[in-house]
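Worked example 3. Consider a protein that binds guanosine-5',3'-tetraphosphate.
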Amino acid sequence: MRELEDKIRTFGKALNEDVLLVDMFLNHQVDCELMDHIGDEFARLFADAGITRVATVEASGIAPALMCALKMRVPLLVLKKSASAIMNENVLQTEVFSFTKQKSYLLTMKQEYMLPGDRVLLIDDFLANGEAALGASRLIEQAGGIVSGIGIVISKSFQPGLKRLREAGYNVKALAEIAGLQKDHIEFVPEG
Ligand code: G4P
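Given these inputs, the predicted complex is written out as structure tokens:
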């Protein structure tokens, strides 16, 4: 997606070989007009997938997922990274390990927000090792949903997530693919 790549080129910052900072427009300050266009693009890419629900993992996935769900006119389900005290009935959980943070969390959802056979489009802001997306897919499937697409805003394609998800059989589309990072240099995978 050209507009997103231009934003990354202009405002993104490669902190080191692993981390791309995009907090100026994506996950701290949020460029709502860009999010609107990201929602349009996901809706276009998955228009033929028969999507009945969008899902994401809190917190930074919510903005693009909300725009996408709005455009597709389907409900949005936000998977939680921890269960609250009031969330104790018919709850499903799966453990996810974050390599970036070097710790695990329990991805959690209420069974009632997934209908049997729901065709789910999973949206997230970043794809690195794929643990969050694989965990979210596990949970959605456990709840009776079908993961019918995975939409990623930025895939760091030099890390294993994209390959792992595709090898697991998921239809994954990324709006921007990063081929490599070096301090103050961002290399994209050419579109196409
Ligand atoms: P994985 O799911 O693909 O295995 O990724 P990992 O656990 O390693 O990533 C964990 C968190 O780090 C995620 O946010 C993800 O968005 C974020 N992240 C990964 N790589 C980058 C990067 O290069 N730049 C930035 N800015 N973030 C990155 P999170 O902890 O779930 O945070 P949030 O969604 O609550 O904000």
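Take a moment to read the result before moving on. The domain at 2-188 is CATH 3.40.50.2020 (Rossmann fold). The chain has five helices and ten strands.
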